[in-house]
Amino acid sequence: MLITKIEFIKKELYRVDIDYEFAFALYERELKQFHLKENLELSEELVEEIEKEIVLPRAKRKAMLLLKYSDRTKEELRKRLLEASFHSNIVEKAIEYVEAYGYINDQRYMENYILFKKTSKSKKQIEMELIKKGMERQQVTQYLEENQWDEIEVLREAVRKRLMGKRLQEEKDLQKQYGYFMRKGYSYYQVKKVIEEYLEELETEQNL
């Protein structure tokens, strides 16, 4: 196993390539500790020692730190660890570690996210956001189907807030508002129904 490249990343952290592929990232003091340099032959035992004693514990600590202040999906954590210059194999081991201790749980994350967001967002918008965070579409869709709530009332409140004080005198103004709420994940018929209700209520109040 040959060190084919050692490249500076940031703040005394260096990327180490073995046999032309990324192996791990080490700090300058660790390079010196193991006397690592380009074109040096390494034993498989030494590579395993570095991964086990240095890199993996660091990845676990990084994962714990990332989860300390913000709950994340497995995919979000994976992305952050890869961005922190850990090899994909090390990343998966670190994820297995925090998952085994219950520090990360996609089902729990999804349930909490929906509980928090359902009072202000449409089901479709919540579904898209969770999928973007790495959740499986089937898992999210099934949970939303099994746990219904009145999103029309959420839409009514959103319409009241957005249209308060606005005059929709022209068709283009009305269509603009339709487009806004449809982009938030509501259907045309939902938006049409709620906006018409709002305008009728507004007209009634003005005629009193």
For this entry, give a set of tags.
3-stranded antiparallel sheet
Describe the structure in your own words.
- Helices cover 64% and strands 10% of the residues.
- The protein is mainly α and 208 residues long.
- A three-stranded antiparallel beta sheet has the order 1-2-3.
- Strand 2 and strand 3 form a beta hairpin.
- Helix 6 runs antiparallel to helix 7 (137-146).
- The longest helix is centred in the N-terminal third of the chain and has 26 residues, at 44-69.
- The mean pLDDT is 91.
- Largest sheet: spatial strand order: 1-2-3
The separation of the N and C termini measures 86 Å
- What is the helical fraction, as a range of percent? 55-70%
Low-pLDDT stretches? none
For the sheet with most strands, the description reads:
3 strands, antiparallel
Q: What is the string of SSEs from the N terminus onward? A: EEEHHHHHHHHHH
**Total strands:** 3
Class based on secondary structure composition and strand pairing: mainly alpha
Global outline = elongated
Mean pLDDT across the residues is 91
Could you state the oligomeric state of the chains shown? single chain
